[in-house]
Amino acid sequence: MDRPLPSSPSSAATDMARRTAVGTQSAAGTSMITKIPVRTRLRDVGLRPTRQRVALAEILFSHGHRHLSAEDLHAEALTAKVPVSLATVYNTLNQFTEAGLLREVAVEGTRTYFDTNTEDHHHFYVEDENRVFDIPGPHVEIGDLPPAPAGMEIVRVDVVVRLRNKR
Ligand SMILES: [Zn+2]
């Protein structure tokens, strides 16, 4: 956090959708939308470019920014004739996340999405459809954050604005 936080006192849940992102830019613009070959990108973050990692990374990163569950990626891998188990997909996604190639977005206890956009941003979640997408622009303002407990620092704040179709 290299900028003072706005000190708006609003904290009601109904204000959630109106808050604006804490304006921290992730270090060195780590956007994964780039023309750097997958093998190089894997090596750059210390991962050996095995055949499976390269195949999965190509599927993941060749479609722009998106949000995938392990099951989604597994299905795409099978469609692309990449023979890989769901367990391997999970392991690979976790390795990519630890290496900073992906960001985890947890919206339910049971469901995790992996986001190819590693910049600071927030999400809409459509409950009926289990669908996650980025909140465009600087629309979420986090006011009145609690101080981190002694010996700790805040890494980032994730906002998920939950949606449903009007009834
Ligand atoms: Zn996202």
Give the overall silhouette: globular
Strand order of the largest sheet: 1-3-2
Structural class: alpha+beta
CATH class: Mainly Alpha
Number of helices: 4
Task: Please tell me about this protein's structure.
The structure is a single chain. The chain is an alpha+beta fold and 167 residues long. It has one domain: Winged helix-like DNA-binding domain superfamily/Winged helix DNA-binding domain (Arc Repressor Mutant, subunit A), CATH 1.10.10.10. The protein is 25% helix and 15% strand. The strands form two sheets. It has a three-stranded antiparallel beta sheet. A three-stranded mixed beta sheet has the order 5-4-6, with no helix packed on it. A hairpin with a 4-residue loop joins strand 4 and strand 5. It is globular, with a radius of gyration of 18 Å. Zinc ion binds next to loops.
Task: Summarize this entry quickly.
With 167 residues, the chain is an alpha+beta fold. Helix content is 25%, strand content 15%.
SSE blueprint and pairings:
Elements: H1 38-44, H2 51-61, E1 67-68, H3 70-79, H4 86-98, E2 103-108, E3 111-115, E4 123-126, E5 131-134, E6 160-163
Parallel strand pairs: 4-6
Antiparallel strand pairs: 1-3, 2-3, 4-5
Helix pairs in contact: 3-4
The structure holds zinc ion.
Zinc ion binds next to loops.
